[in-house]
Write a structure and sequence with these properties.
5 helices, 162 residues, globular, mainly alpha, Four Helix Bundle (Hemerythrin (Met), subunit A)
Amino acid sequence: MNKEDFQEDLMNELENLKRLNDEMRQLLEEIGDSPSFIEIRAAGSILHDFYSGVEKIFERIAVNIDHSLPEGENWHMELLLQMTKPYQDMRDAIISEGLCNDLKEYLRFRHLFRHIYGFEIKWERFGVLCQRLEGIFITFKTEIESFISAILNDGVDGDTDR
């Protein structure tokens, strides 16, 4: 994949994340202090999709730039951590340690969401993630756009097809 296609792919994923952020903002405006079970399930689904989108971006970077996608039982966490470190001579860190720590909470939630029944989700335990989503999204978008800018300015060596 050439740099321009890679950039377009990442920007499309960022646009999907923006849409999820907008959906969460709208949902939070409507639900008030006591969300219904349908609103709780909707919020959980948005958070699930949000981290899945973040991880899609990380996977594309790992495959196209690093040529190293983690394997094994903890690969999701290893991929997140991989993005916080420079990778050989190919790239700088993609995200900050602070953002990584924030995203760990969303990764844990996504794992929980996939492994429990929807009626077991407790607003008291994940509502704060919903409320913090916009700030997390803005930080993530800023850090990914910095990475994309580095690619276009040859901060990442040559073509993504190495």
